[in-house]
Specification:
Layout (H helix, E strand, L loop, with lengths): L1 E9 L3 H16 L3 E2 L2 E4 L9 E10 L3 H14 L15 E7 L4 E3 L2 E3 L3 H4 L1 H10 L12 H7 L6 E4 L2 E2 L2 E2 L11
Antiparallel strand pairs: 1-4, 1-5, 2-4, 3-4, 3-8, 6-7, 9-10
Helix pairs in contact: 4-5
Length: 176
Amino acid sequence: MTNVFVSIGSNISREQYITNALCALEVAFGSLQLSSVYESEAVGFAGDNFYNLVVGFETDLSVGALTQRLKEIEADNGRVHGCAKFSARTLDIDILTFDQVVGNISGVELPRQEITENAFVLLPLSEIAASELHPVLKEAYSNLWSAYSKKQLLWPVDFVWKQTKISLCDKSKLKG
C-alpha cells in the first residue's frame, strides 16, 4: 500500500462539495487522515474564498489510476475540466505526494510544487504529517511551515463531517 496525501479545495457551495469529496474518498480508500479546514482568499483570480484541507490515505492504485479516480470524484461533483487554471470550482483534488516518489509520473509532477508555495496546502499538510519528509527537500513539513515566509491569508473554520468537528488547528499556527 502507498501512503498518499491530497489537497482538496472548493469555492462553490464549499461545505457541500468538501463533504461529498470526503465521503467519496472514504468509500474509495477507507480510513482518512484529515487536517483542519481552512478558508483562504482565491489565488490568481478575483473570486469567492476557498475552503481547503489535506487528506491522507493508503491506496494500491497507481498514480495514473489514482488521478483518474480523483477526476471522477471531481466530475461527479460538477467540476468542469478545461476551464481556466485560476477560476472558481466546485471541487479540486490534487495529489501532493505519493509515498516518496519524485518525478513526472503519468502526467503528475510529484511531489506537487504547491506544497512549498501555498500556505493553504503547507499548513494543513504540516498539521497531519508534521514529521514526514518532503521527498525532494528532505525536510519535515513542520519545519517547512515554520520557515514559510510568504504572506497568504488563511484561517481555520469550523467544519463538521460525520458528526465530528474536524477543524483541529490552533490559531497560533497561523502567520501573517
